């Protein structure tokens, strides 16, 4: 399962004068936009953050929290060829949104530049439980 992202980084909470400056050069960050070549424009590189952002636009219709924060996404695999594979689960096997959530995840990811194909697989092992939710989701649902 991918690492959880915090809504606000620690560096943003510190006064500017106390933000530590790293001794080594920062790792290269892929550009957020494509490049132009004589053959035409190229799409920006596909990143895990972009895929997570797309998945986070999908909400369970019964719960006011996105499915990523609910912990329903178990694995993301990004291929160099633009193929994205997703392993996800549902809160219960009898979830009334079982038909629509996987297709919404596929549609959200498919809209990203550089994606050539999307495969969403529903898995039941391990079963979902509330411990998989992020802190933000627990607060939103008063489950702390």
Number of strands: 5
Mean pLDDT: 79
Number of helices: 4
Strand content: 15-25%
Shape: elongated
Largest sheet, if any? 3 strands, mixed
Portion in helices: 10-25%
How are the secondary structure elements laid out?
Elements (H helix, E strand, L loop, with lengths): L9 H4 L22 E2 L2 E2 L6 H8 L17 E6 L4 E6 L11 H11 L6 E6 L12 H6 L4
Parallel strand pairs: 4-5
Antiparallel strand pairs: 1-2, 3-4
Written description of the protein model:
- This protein is an alpha+beta fold.
- The chain is built from 4 helices and 5 strands; from the N terminus they run αββαββαβα.
- It has a 3-stranded mixed sheet, with helices on one face.
- Helix content is 20%, strand content 15%.
- Strand 1 and strand 2 form a beta hairpin.
- The two termini are 22 Å apart.
Task: Give a summary of the structure in a few sentences.
The chain has 144 residues and is of the alpha+beta class.
